[in-house]
């Protein structure tokens, strides 16, 4: 599987997703607070279209009678049966060691015209002295 352009960052703003098909695989690309994650659009339970599910947070470990909520925007819930998956690694919240959804590596690249350019100058050595020439 090679690199494939799936869109611009302006198309997938924080909290948003884009469902794409790459090499015959349907996946969701999610922007979680400026970091992008991609997961296969198939719940391992009964192959529901996972990536159309609700994205939210979850309860965190806490003391008895205390309820802490966190990880907003990192948890994907299956639209059919509510199975929950961590977008950052694909593992289920219920049984992370035995149940997960396939994840894919995501890179953000600047367009060629926006990539930083390094300006170079000719360098020569004259009588053990390094000389740099700047011509404007």
Automatic annotation (TrEMBL):
Domain annotation Rieske: ranges: 4-115
Sorted UniProt keywords: 2Fe-2S, Iron, Iron-sulfur, Metal-binding
Pfam families assigned to the protein according to its UniProt record, in alphabetical order: Rieske
Gene3D superfamilies assigned to the protein according to its UniProt record, in alphabetical order: Rieske [2Fe-2S] iron-sulphur domain (2.102.10.10)
InterPro entries, sorted: Rieske_2Fe-2S, Rieske_2Fe-2S_sf
PANTHER family for the chain: 3-PHENYLPROPIONATE_CINNAMIC ACID DIOXYGENASE FERREDOXIN SUBUNIT (PTHR21496:SF23), FERREDOXIN-RELATED (PTHR21496)
Name of the protein: Rieske (2Fe-2S) protein
UniProt source species: Paenibacillus baimaensis
